[in-house]
Amino acid sequence: MSLDAVLKIGGSLNRGDCLEALCDEVRRLGESFHLMVVPGGGVFADEVRKAYKRFKLSGTAAHCMALSAMDQYGYVLNHLIAGSLLTPDLTTACRAAESGKVSILLPSTSVLQHSDLPHSWRVTSDTIAAWVAHRADCRRLILLKDVDGLLSAAPTNKEAELVTELTVAQLAVRSGGVDEYLSHFLATVRLETWVVNGLRPERLAELLEEDYTTGTRIWRS
Questions:
Q1: Residue 1: pLDDT band by 50, 70, 90 thresholds?
Q2: φ, ψ for residue 99 (rounded to 5)?
Q3: Residue 61 to residue 84: CA distance in whole angstroms
């Protein structure tokens, strides 16, 4: 038995009124699929960015604080996903998900103790979620954001279109939509990554149940 997916629930999703609906769908899907949630940073990470600029913090200090911000958002998600298990231990999170309980990983302890990810704003919750999925031996990462996926141009461009598929190499020469380091990390692991609109919870269900949905699939060629 193994995980069906690691879900990163983006911090941007807590700025609207749809987070509760997404979390309820994650709870429902957790009855049929083995799911682990990695929280984004959201408004908690925004405060870290402000402190980083104001106090001219080191990259390492900001990295540690941003991981703590993800932990804080994890407590919010634990409250909203009924019956979920909140834990800082990756092994425990895997076992809980495999036993039929949605697990929410507080990532700071595992990342600080075991990863060699750069201490930089190039690394955000996107790459951290990918690192967690790799460590958990999960082959699918779903990044739930407040957009339909990665676009062919800036969102302000009326001609921007959804890019449905990208190789990791193609992702590396793009900017925006995901953090700067994600393509570098994905080039070193075997991981199918999706960017999906978390404001449309039915798309998460469609991907898990039918293996495809509206969004952007990123794969290593």
A1: low
A2: -90, 0
A3: 30
Res 154: pLDDT:
84
Give Cα separations from 218 to 32, 36, 78, 205 (angstroms).
25, 19, 28, 18
What is the H or E stretch that residue 95 is in? helix 90-98
Q: CA-CA distance, 72 to 69, in Å (whole number)?
A: 5
The first and second tokens of residue 125, run together, are: 């919750």
Residue 60 CB neighbour total at 10 angstroms: 12
Answer yes or no: is pLDDT of 60 > 60. Answer: yes
C-alpha to C-alpha distance for 144 and 212, rounded to whole angstroms: 14
Annotated domain spans of the chain: 5-219
Q: Report the chain's mean pLDDT, rounded to a whole number.
A: 96
**Sheet architecture: strand order including 216-219:** 85-87, 103-105, 35-39, 5-9, 140-145, 192-197, 216-219, 165-167
With 0-12 / 13-18 / 19 or more C-beta atoms within 10 angstroms meaning exposed / middle / buried, residue 14 is: buried
CATH assignment, 5-219: 3.40.1160.10
Mean of the pLDDT values across residues 80-84?
A: 98
